[in-house]
Design brief:
The chain has helices at residues 23-30, 75-78, 85-92, 102-113, 121-128, 138-153, and strands spanning 2-8, 11-17, 49-52, 55-58, 71-73. It has 154 residues and is α+β, with helices and mostly antiparallel strands.
Length: 154
């Protein structure tokens, strides 16, 4: 085991972990941040998406030893009050059915919306295409992202 100092949601955390432990398990099992979901473990579904220095990344594919001093934001850290525009419109439009992929969907959108504040429907589909939704709520996901982007822009 090795010691790591991680910046998670704006707070420094000291953790003991094997160097090859995925960040996903550090977040869930060591720090108790269970909003980041385990889906496939191979980076195919992206239910475990977090932001690393503002860029969406699959936590299951990121070893804790490779995080270094990069800032990690999980769904728990996106907004203290749960009032990020994506979270507001996710709720308003009743996007989730099972809810399993939703944290990853929101985090991916949060990562790219800062650089693409006025996305087209095609942009949303393309930029979210790596996040799988088992329930098929893609039309509501697209609408929530569109409304959130309009809210953030205006």
């Amino acid at each position: 085991m090795a010691s790591y100092s991680l910046n998670i949601n704006g707070t420094q955390h000291s953790v003991e972990a094997e160097p090859d432990m995925p960040l996903l398990w550090v977040l869930r099992d060591v720090l108790g941040l269970t909003g980041t979901k385990y889906g496939c473990g191979v980076g195919a579904c992206n239910s475990c998406t977090v932001l690393l220095d503002g860029t969406a990344s699959s936590a299951c594919q990121q070893q804790v030893s490779g995080v270094g001093d990069r800032a990690v934001i999980t769904i728990e850290g996106l907004s203290d009050a749960g009032d990020h525009p994506l979270q507001i419109f996710w709720d308003e439009l009743n996007v989730p059915q099972c809810g399993f992929c939703q944290a990853g969907q929101i985090m991916r959108a949060a990562g790219w919306l800062k650089d693409n504040a006025n996305p087209t429907d095609e942009d949303i589909v393309r930029l979210q295409s790596s996040n799988l939704c088992r329930c098929g709520t893609y039309p509501r996901i697209k609408e929530a992202i569109r409304k959130a982007s309009q809210h953030m822009e205006g």
